[in-house]
Amino acid sequence: MFESLSDRLGGVFDRLRGRGALNEADVRAALREVRIALLEADVALPVVRQFVDGVTEKAVGQSVLKSITPGQQVVKIVNDALTEMLGSDAADLDLDVTPPAVVMMVGLQGSGKTTTTAKIAKRLTEKGRKKVLMASLDVNRPAAQEQLATLGTQVSVATLPIVAGQTPVDIARRALQAAKLQGFDVLMLDTAGRLHVDQALMEEMRAVAEISTPHEILLVVDALTGQDAVNVATNFSQQVALTGVVLTRMDGDARGGAALSMRAVTGKPIKFVGTGEKLDGLELFQPSRVAGRILGMGDVVSLVERAAETIQVEEAEALAAKMAKGQFDMNDLRAQFNQMKRMGGLGALAGMLPGVKQVKQAMANGAGDDKMLVRLDAIIGSMTPKERSKPELLNAKRKIRIAKGSGTTVQEVNKLLKMHQEMANAMKKIRKMGGLKGLGAMMGKGGGLGGMLGGLTGGMGGGAGGMPQLPPGGMGGLPGLPGKGPGGLPAGFDKFLKK
Amino acid sequence: MTQPPTPWHQKIVGGFRRTSDKLGENLTGLFTKATLDRETLDGIEEALIASDLGPATAARIRNRLADERYEKGIDEQGVRAVMANEIARILAPVAKPLEIEAFPRPQVILVIGVNGSGKTTTIAKLAHLLQEQDYSVMLVAGDTFRAAAIGQLKVWAERIGVPIISGKEGGDAAGLVYEGVKQGTATGIDVLIVDTAGRLQNKAGLMDELSKIRRVLGRLNPAAPHDVVLVLDATTGQNGLNQIEVFRETAGVTGLVMTKLDGTARGGLLVAAAEKFGLPVHAIGIGEGVDDLRPFDAEEVARAIAGVSE
Ligand SMILES: Nc1nc2c(ncn2[C@@H]2O[C@H](COP(=O)(O)OP(=O)(O)OP(=O)(O)O)[C@@H](O)[C@H]2O)c(=O)[nH]1
Ligand SMILES: Nc1nc2c(ncn2[C@@H]2O[C@H](COP(=O)(O)OP(=O)(O)OP(=O)(O)O)[C@@H](O)[C@H]2O)c(=O)[nH]1
Ligand SMILES: [Mg+2]
Ligand SMILES: [Mg+2]
């Protein structure tokens, strides 16, 4: 929807090509664009002003690297400053105390406190091997306590039994006692949503904090938040001793400028980001990624890392070997689908990419549908092993059988075949262009995925590729990725859903 | 960023106070001119941005105000009134309450939006309001995804005393919605309000599901859904425009409700949205109780954005 900063600055600086050092007028012109970009990304106005002043000082007089344009130089300075301001490193929870360590969640209504409570509890239980108890102090919202109880069952974490009619302070006391008696390591207190201007509720929050002396108080904020972020951050941090911030709904397509506002006003680290309604949608905060996103340059780094995490190395190696021979059959296509599913489907994947039109288009056409992956998988599942390795065998009769077996239509089978064909072609092209090398090295022979990325990032050349100097290390491989034409997702995906 | 003496975040907080006072300072004693001076216009633009109108809309309004001539001696309140007028002019055409007029009954209202925006609570408020106006109302607990979402709407239904159709958590939302229209039609109620799970507009799969719910609603009654109401959270920034655009495309939004205007967020997004989409704004939410729904009053919201003191 909005232009990325690099696009904006491209225009401003075209006429300045070949300059030696950035003079004040250049910088001011550029920073007007930076200001608008930050405001469009919902960074709060006073924070924008402060940031732009700081960057102006830094940028004036810097010599422009020979290899890049003045615009890119400014983008780099801005990106670095932003990354630094967001926090030089990611901070996890600090729960190194005599148990039970109390973690209290606070924030506006609907920001995601209850969901995040369960996500963190799950993480502490699974990764930290802690014994966690969750308690909901929300006596306002209908069924709030039941919500946490349900989530507790889903993640197998204990919740404090619900007793009707208790005040939040009573519940907190009871929770503390239970946690102590039953030897829990961590007690998580979910609280009701409250407006920072609601005196009574803010007072109640302080009372809870007083009696439970939390080791961590996390302010849960919606990544979609606009200018009001400053008021929220100011007021909550005046009332309780926040230790960190959680930014939810980062799986959306908001630029997430609230991250900068929060960080600037509270001075506290952003510890986690929420990336989905599901309870595994929680990640540590990565300043450099969010910086890129605020500037509209996409979250390329996390995409690649997520890919690297979920890709099954052996599968990838086998696929790479096949590709080297120029073979790509239905089994391989199926392996690709499985990888996509592990990565949270195409929705999650495409959401992390720069705001490339083609990707959005493809998503609008339903390419991000996890269910579709399941259906495609079913079609392949109904093929005989022979058919899978030799899709040419599929004549009309066989197609009818497969459609029946998989509960789909012949049309859909045809679409799958077309997709396979186009993808096989894409694979060939990638191999020819040698584009896999960079990415493969980064992801450990990330063969098959490269194909997918190659498709997905068609057109990305203008985004990340256009700014070779910028993104944090390790990205070298990406710009070289071949882009396929528009809608460059594994071709045919977009057509698949049109009924 | 190495000198610890004054933590930079504190400076920003200071900076913020300066902003809110800035307009006032700039305006004092400058009012002998016929057009607004640059500092005043800057102040106006910043005030608009701080209310989430977004830089582009703020700049447009600034330019419009810059072209006008004003009485000499206009004071700060005068300038704020000018701002409020301009904003009200943009908002007035979209202020349209939700009308219940479907025949054959029931009028089906589908309520959609991103996660946590206030859909379920708004449904309770709306149902209560319509009931007070003597319409019979039925609810459908179409959010079968979120934990205890059904329970939440059930509690509301009981409190305000309206019937509710619900299924199992994890069940098929579209099927339930079909059942809802069937029962609603059979019992001859006036209004059927359908809750849906929150979804971010960039999730293609979830958006497809919404189109499906829409289609299913129309099966028994081709006119349904009569209204598709998008619930926006007032604290939302510029992504709200994107929300409107995508939900309108995939779900055919017919009107907006903005919630959480009881905080400090001013909802300037509605101004940008009015210029860009012109979709009706039906009501605003100003609290968590059933009585906290108000008709959308363009002038009132405009005055709040412009900071006109009563
Ligand atoms: N897409 C997405 N949805 C989220 C995320 N975190 C929470 N949600 C959803 O946001 C909605 C509100 O979440 P809750 O956890 O109930 O929010 P809350 O802050 O506890 O709300 P109150 O208790 O009413 O103040 C639910 O629909 C959640 O599923 C996230 O990171 N991404
Ligand atoms: N202050 C205030 N809070 C509100 C308003 N409307 C809703 N809320 C609160 O916001 C939170 C979320 O409201 P819900 O109605 O559950 O939101 P939802 O859109 O149904 O959420 P999901 O179904 O999880 O997507 C609850 O705590 C509500 O009490 C409002 O106008 N003002
Ligand atoms: Mg909650
Ligand atoms: Mg709801």
Description:
Chain B: It catalyses: GTP + H2O = GDP + phosphate + H(+). Chain B: Its EC number is 3.6.5.4. Chain B: Residues 105-256 form the AAA+ ATPase domain. Chain B: Keywords: Cell membrane, Cytoplasm, GTP-binding, Hydrolase, Membrane, Nucleotide-binding, Receptor. The complex is a heterodimer of chains A (499) and B (310). Chain A is 53% helix and 8% strand. Chain A has 499 residues and is α/β, with parallel strands linked by helices. Chain A has an eight-stranded mixed sheet with strand order 3-2-4-1-5-6-7-8, with helices on both faces. In chain A, a hairpin with a 7-residue loop joins β7 and β8 (282-284). The longest helix of chain A has 24 residues, at 410-433. Chain A starts with a helix and ends with a helix. Chain B is α/β, with parallel strands linked by helices. Chain B has two domains: 8-94, Four Helix Bundle (Hemerythrin (Met), subunit A) (Up-down Bundle), CATH 1.20.120; 107-306, Rossmann fold, CATH 3.40.50. In chain B, 48% of the residues lie in helices and 12% in strands. Chain B has an eight-stranded mixed sheet, sandwiched between helices. In chain B, α1 (8-27) packs across α2 and α2 (38-50) runs antiparallel to α3. The two termini of chain B are 43 Å apart. Chains A and B meet through α2, α3, α6, α9 and α10 of A and α1, α2, α6, α8 and α9 of B. The structure holds guanosine-5'-triphosphate (2 copies) and magnesium ion (MG) (2 copies). One guanosine-5'-triphosphate (GTP) sits between chains B (113, 115-121, 143, 146, 149, 198, 259-260, 262, 285-288, 292) and A (109-110, 141, 193, 195).
